[in-house]
Amino acid sequence: MMVIGLLGFGTVGGGVYKLADARTDMTVKYVLDLRQIPELGDKLVHDFAAIVNDPEVDTVVEVLGGLHPSYEFVTAALRAGKNVVTANKYLVCHYFTELTALAKECGVALRCTAAAGGGIPWLYNLERAKRLDTITSVSGIMNGTTNYIMDTMLHNPVSFESVLKEAQALGYAEADPSADIDGWDIQRKLIISANIAFDSLLSEADVPTFGIRNVCDADIAAFSSKNLVCKLIATGTKTAAGVAAYVEPTLVAATEPESAVPSNFNLITFEGENVGRLSFFKVLAGVLEPGMELINARTGKKERLGHLYVMMGKEATDVKSAKAGDIIVVPKLSETRSGDTLSETGEIAVEPLALPTPQYPVAIEAVNKKDEDKLGTFLARFAENDPTVRISRSEETHQTVITAMGDTQVETLLARCKEQTGVEAKLVPVRIPYRETIRKTAEAQGRHKKQTGGAGQFGDCWLRLEPNPGGGYEFLDEIVGGKIPRGFIPAIDKGVQDAMAEGFLAGYPMEDIKCAVFDGSYHAVDSNEMAFKTAARIGFRAACEKADPVLLEPMANLNIVVGEDYAGAVMGDISTRRGRIVGTDSNDAGETVIIVRVPYAEVVTYTKDLRSITRGSGSYSITLEGYEEAPHDVTKKLVEAYQAARAAGKKAVRLDTFVTNVRGRRLYESCGFDCLGTHVLRYGNLGPTAVALYEKAL
What we know:
Strand order of the largest sheet: 3-2-1-4-5-6
Number of strands: 35
Number of helices: 18
CATH topology of the largest domain: Dihydrodipicolinate Reductase, domain 2
Structural class: alpha+beta
Radius of gyration: 31 Å
Number of domains: 7
């Protein structure tokens, strides 16, 4: 018989009491509560000492909530040798590591699976999965209250406020719903889940969190018209740099499982590694056995050998050892790549084969946007198996770029992709990452005034723009005398950054600009952050028009190695590409080395051109270094194309999200949004936060 000391008799505590009372294998001996509750009779106590000092009580159930005195009660119970069950996510979020260690030290059980997804049960299954696999991500709907609100607004065109009242009446939301609708409840559940899954020590300050308080019925209707559903999603991902975790309203496609989660239900998922990676080895010396720990000479990191296999076609035979000369297969080596050497000391390294450096870039995308994830997985696997292929993702140009040796290798990649994954991919031109900046100092006023019958919008600011060569973006607050309240200054800064991301001449991001706000005015009622953000965008564009804006093009440095017979032809070709011959040299083989600086746009496909000129004998290396002003004809062409698009009635909708929200970003991309770039913003107390801005033409 389990004898329980119950801490708290609220909604949850009362439910626990009824459940225990209906069973024969447990009983509640004490209920701790400061109120007078006649129905409890002698079971009601007001002093925790009565519970902790009673040897008959073997289990303490804590449902008080909050940090204190819950922390003190739980630690005292554990030290007294009593098992503890808690649903207090706030407590577990802050003291999980300490409490689990204390429970282990005292030889008792600490059960907190009800703190997050208790009905699933989520934490219990997460711990089980962790013992079997390495968890790489956790995500999903972790709050029933917010899901009820979003689901109700989706199916019934009613206001947020009315749905919230309905949720409170049904008992789904507390009288003070802030913890739910502002995302703090789901944040704590995410912290608990991530700390268990990743052995991390996340705190509330580490997890940017945005709730649904500002989502309105018009937003829901607009999303629904695009077959999108808005859900409050928590996401935690284990990366090479650490753990990325955040909570924010996220658009999910109507075909995704999260979109169909009804009412106050939850849906949480995790992803783990599997045995998909197989490493082929040749044993050069000694004897290998399962369980051995070897050191990678390249990384210095340890790798533990699991099973050893000998491959015979597709069949794998498990072997107990391998000696010098054997070729074996080992699964699940995370840090080992082609050409690496493993040894007991990590000091023995066999020089890898000298491989040529790929120089032929092509952009690739899936014909069907839904296949982008499959394509990305395939490309990563292909690059691991072929060191002469490099895969990169440009956040600026919103392209996946393959850098290969030539057309034949790329064609092979496309064929294998379709054969192995069923994904049909296509090649598209590589976009050039142009920039924009200014050459003069200029001032302009940005004024935004809007009156719609109720509270209006008013923002007024004077901006001064200055060239800042090599200094990036700088924002200066020169407001004195309270002409603009300090609380609106960050909104002006963000408005300027948004305008810079959009560009002025041809829609390319702007850089190396110092912006100062030095004057302005405000309205005591109508002024708000959005109004000043809009005013800043207006003022920035007005100042840019006076500041002599200019287009910048990326430059490339090339070292071209050719036979003496072809040197003249190569130099002549470079001149036609607006390149400059910096110098010439010769190597030990008697070949001519031509050092060139040339606009990158002119040599993106130079591999094929050089092979044609030199009959396949020439080679080169390339590095991107710096930007220079683009000539008038290039600028004119790009500006005209940009203006033609705008004149054709191009309207756009823009969305931004955290850079780490890979799932959300992929959704935006699959819906036809283009990434305009990334920038770091400050959100309240969250500190610097990387945000990606997306745009879609309407």
